[in-house]
Structure formats: structure tokens, C-alpha cells
Amino acid sequence: MKIKTNSFLAVVFILGVSLSSCKRDTADNPNTNPVRPENFEELNAPSSFDWETNKSVLISLTGYSTSVSNERGVITLLDENENVLYKGMHSTQFTFEQEILVPQSLKTIRIKFGVTDKVLPIAGNAVSGTLLPVLPEVL
Amino acid sequence: MALAIGLVADVSAQTVTLNMESGSASTDAANCWSFQNVDYSNSSSDIITGSWTGRTAQLNGGSHYISSPWVQNISGNITFKHRLSSTNQASNKTMYLVSYDYNAAQYDTLYTYSNYTSSNATNVVSASISVNKTGVYKLFFSFTGSNGSTRGLIDDISIPATYNSSPSNGCVPTNTAIDTDGDGVADTQDDYPNDATLAFNNYLNANYSTMLFEDLWPGKGDYDFNDLVIDYRINRITNANNKIVKAQMFVVLRAIGASYKNGFAFQINNLSPSKISSVSGQNMTESLFSLSSNGTEANQSYAVIPVFDNALKTIGYTGGGTGVNVESNGGTVAYDTTTLTINFDTSGNGVTLSNFGGSTFNPFIVINQTRGREVHKADHIPTSLVNSNLFGTAQDRSNPGQSTYYKTANNHPWVIETSTSIDYMKEKNELTSGYLKFIDWVISGGTTNTDWYSNTSSGYRDASKIY
User: Fold this and answer.
1) Is B295 left (phi over 0), alpha (psi -120 to 50) or beta?
2) Cβ contact (<8 Å) for B418 and A86?
């Protein structure tokens, strides 16, 4: 009887651990939730979820040397609808770094600086590349 | 970098060169050389000198040239080397050097070579053309021809002139851009060409954003997120040194699904109140906020700028009931737009766009005239004047020790923000009942259905629940 009791307790313990583990997974990784919530009350959000459709993106673009010292010009960042996301002066030889706020749905950033006019993809919360122009391929 | 300026005092003795040894036409294009159907080749069969040579596409029609940066006062011999890559159809190929006069807008052919033959086309031709021209010019090194697969090759260009282009200003000739206010920003790029203190509009949000508030904190609300509905857009106006001179904030109060007399303000995290010179346009009718002489709230560690202190008075609603613009047969009034102008202290290091950016802009409401009862977006820090005794009470699970704020046990917020202006819910209708993909967006951690608020296709919203 004692053995049976111990076995029963062990099963209960294991089951309890399993269930509590499942619950934690569901809260932290809601993709595993087997039942889609029907309303707000049932909704478990990831702990890092910020409830905004904007996100901050860090733009980092390596500069280049020029034959003109202290060369400065206007750099402009635009979204896919030509909305200006940033506009300011930049010295050519330095790396350009700026954090901007964009909709989460935005996939690319257009960069205009000097003769450079190119589009770079947003990877997570960053855009990285150079300020150099992209030339058409010569066949 | 194959571009150089001779280090001599006499500008007429300077030279502008291109030897392709950067190996990157992009690098040289950034210095105002231009390439039309020309790239660099390091193929041994193409090399004229060094490791790289300019090479055109096949010369069977179209334009193929390298153009120089703008140069000033050409005096001496322009030199370069050229040949063809093969003898195929060589006799109908021609190489030109043409100048373009910026002021006169005229072309002038300085050199023509059409002596390529089936026996000599791959031999290097060293060209040297004596030129004396005063003014601003661009030079075109061009190959033409029809039929065949041969390509033009060019190397070691040297121009006895002064470099006169502005690489970071679209490679226009130096000192030709008009700058009326003299702030160093050309009129064509300056949003304020007649004001030397201002240069650029920098909107924090490209479009009006919508903030949707619940106002029962620390208790959870009814999830209709219409207790206060605000659209806003902020223009941070910078000068030629990229410092914020002033900001304009446009706040549109659209709906109040509550009876509370809520106030609205924002904090700029980590920014000292002393960095604000003045604020105008605030709508203050109560004694909720105590203002310093510069318009910021007194006794705050960071700059806190109240916008209005009583939403009901701000929107001008005098009727009964418990809501404004939230019920089909309820009280309705026109939206109110408050325009705030914030002037910044530009001395010292000034204030940058990062100082007042997406990470530091921290809007909040103050519930029903109780100053310490302020509600921010999830995980946004409170101000110095919050009643911290409310943290962790009712359904709130804020834990300042872990930098966790304004979330319930299920990580529910009291504020939702969208990046464009959206329609909000009718009174007592959960947000999830109107925006049908909202739940999917949340449980994906924000990775799917990112257009839950903007997509009007079938299956995305139940219009009967939305005001």
C-alpha cells in the first residue's frame, strides 16, 4: 500500500511538473498555444511584447573618404511611400548612425546621400551597409 | 581610391586622376566619377596597367563612357590609355574625349580616335591632349561602335585641373548651390531656406499615430481601449548641426469612453527639464499639473510636458452620459486639436534626435485628477511624481526592481499604439471583437498579421463593433 501511495504521489508530481512546464511555455512562447484565445481575457502575451506597431531601427552606414576635406551633405532616409524618416547633415568620411521609429510592417529603407540613392532591407531592428552608391551591372 | 589632388599651391597645377586601382567603381562614383555601361575588370586579358582597368560592355550600340567629376580651369595635357579587348569588328569602333562647359552648357570634342584595325585594336594607345579652358567642366571618355563583341578598355586618366565637385551634395559643382540663409544647407535641401536657425523637419512618426488608453489602472479595464483616444504627430525641427531647435506636437483628442477627467502629458526620458526653453499651446484648466516657468512640470527629474489636464474640457463636451464619440446614439463633438510648440536650449551639446526619439518619448495619462495615478505604455518608466504604492496592486503587476511596468499577470497593457491613425471601438466592445487579427498578431509576438489595424479586407474587422 505504501508503494502504491508513493507511486501515486510520484505520478502526481511528474504530472504537476509537466503541466506547470506546459503553462510556462505557453506564456513565453504563445505560438505553442493549442487553443486560439477568443477574447482579450484569455490572451497570454509574451513578456517582452510592447503592444505597439512601431519599432525602433538602428541605421548604420559606413562612410567613405573623399578628395574634399570636411565634406558634408544632406542624408535623407525614406520609407516605401517616400515619407521622410530622417533628414540631416552628415560628414562623408564618418559612419552614419541613427535610430529611427518605423512601422513594424516596413521592410526596407531608402537612403539618399550624395550620388547614392539605394534601398536596404530592414533586418530585425537594424539596417546596415555603406554610403557608397550601387551601380548598375555592366554585362 | 584613385582620385587625388596634387598638393601644390597653384591650383592650376592640380590634377584629377582615375586609375581604377580601387577595384570598385562604386567607390569612385561616390567621388563623382560617373560610369555608363562601364565597370572595372581585373582580368589579365583586359589589364592596361596595374591590377584594374575600366571596361565597357560590348560595343554594339548604346552609350559607354566614364565622366569625370566637375573640374575647374583645365591647363595642360589630359592623358589616358585606351584599347579594345579584341579585334572583332574593330574598325567600326571610335573613342572620344568630350568636354562639357557648365556655364555655357556646351559640348566640345577634344579627341577622336577611330584608327582601331583588326591588327592593332588591342595595342595600347597613349593619348595626350593639350587643353586650356577656364571655367567649370566635366569630361567624357566615351567609346562607340556597332556589332561584334569587343569592349573598350581605358586606364590611367589624368586631368590637369582642380577638383570642383561636392560628393555629398549630389556631385554638383562646388559653390553653385544656392544657400539663401547661409546655414550650409542648399535651398533645395533646406526645409527652412530663409531661416539660418532651422534646417530640417524630422517627424518622430511618419504618419499620425493613435494611442488607445484604458483608465482604470491599477485595475484592468474592459478592453475596449477607448477611454481616451488620441492621435498625435511630432515634428522635431533641427538645425544644420542636427540639433533640435524646436518641436511641434499635434495632438488630436478624438474620443473619451469614460467619465473621468483625465489629463495627458509626456516625458522625454533622460532629458533634463532645463533643456526645454519654453512650451506654448498647452490646454490647462485645472490644478493637476504644477508648471515651471519653462512650461515643464515642476519637481520632475526628466522633462515632463503636460498637453492638457482635463480631456472633457479640452474636447468641449458639456453633455451628460459617460462617453464622447464612442456610441452611435451617444454624445458627439468635433475632435480637438492641440498644437504644442516646444523650444529647446541649443547651447552646449544641444538636444539630438536620439535624445528625443522613439526610445525616449514616453506619453501617459493621469487618471481623474489624481496626480500620482499615471498610466504609461507597457514597460515605460513612470515619472518622478507617480504614486509608486499603486504598483503591484489590483491587476497591475509592475515591478520597478525588474523594470517591469504597467502590465498585468498576462502581460496585458493599459495602452495600445498604432503607427497610423485607426478607427477605435464602440463603447463596451473589446478591441479583439472589432479587429479580428489582433489576437493572432499578439500571440505571434508581433511577427505575423502586422497589418491587423490597417487591412480592411474581408476577415480583418467587424465594422459593427467599430465606431
Assistant:
1) left
2) no
CA angle B122/B123/B128 to nearest 5° reads 125
Q: In A, which residues are within 8 Å of B174 by CB distance? A: 68
Instruction: Name the residue in chain A with its Cα closest to that of B169.
Output: A114
Interface test with A, best of B443, B447, B451, B453 (most A CBs within 10 A): B443
Q: Which of A16, A39, A43, A13 is nearest to A27 (CA)?
A: A43
Look at B271 and B169; give whichever has higher pLDDT: B271
CA A87, CA B125: separation in Å to the nearest integer?
Answer: 47
Q: Which residues neighbour B11 within 8 Å (Cβ) at sequence distance 6 or greater?
A: B72, B73, B162
CB contact under 8 A, A44 and B411: yes
- CATH 2.60.40, chain A: domain bounds: 54-130
Q: Which domains does chain B have, with CATH numbers?
A: 11-173 (2.60.120.200), 200-428 (no CATH), 432-467 (no CATH)
Q: Which residue of A has its CA nearest to B177?
A: A73
Query: How would you classify the pairing of strands B276-280 and B336-344?
Result: antiparallel
Contacts of B319 (CB under 8 A, 6+ apart): B331
Q: Which range among B171-185, B201-215, B296-310, B421-435 shows the weakest confidence by mean pLDDT? A: B171-185
Q: Which CATH architecture has domain A54-130?
A: Sandwich (2.60)
Rg (CA), chain A: 26
> What is the ipTM metric for this complex?
0.84
Identity of the residue in A46, A56, A64 whose CB atom sits nearest the CB atom of B358: A56
Chain A residues lying within 8 Å of B241, measured CB to CB: 89
State residue B375's pLDDT score: 98
Q: Torsion angle of alpha carbons A20, A24, A30, A34, nearest 10°?
A: -10
pLDDT at A14 over 70: no
Which residues on adjacent β-strands are paired with residue B75?
A: B132
User: CB of B63 within 8 Å of any CB in chain A?
Assistant: no
Residue B172 has pLDDT above 50, yes or no: yes
Are B85 and B57 within 8 A, CB to CB? no
Within 128-167 of B, beta carbons closer than 8 Å to A belong to 163, 165-167
Q: Is A33 in Cβ contact with B443 (below 8 Å)?
A: yes
Contact B74, B132 (CB under 8 A): yes
Euclidean distance between CA atoms B43 and B144, whole angstroms: 22
**Considering only residues 393 to 412 of chain B, which have any Cβ-Cβ distance to chain A shorter than 8 Å?**
410-412
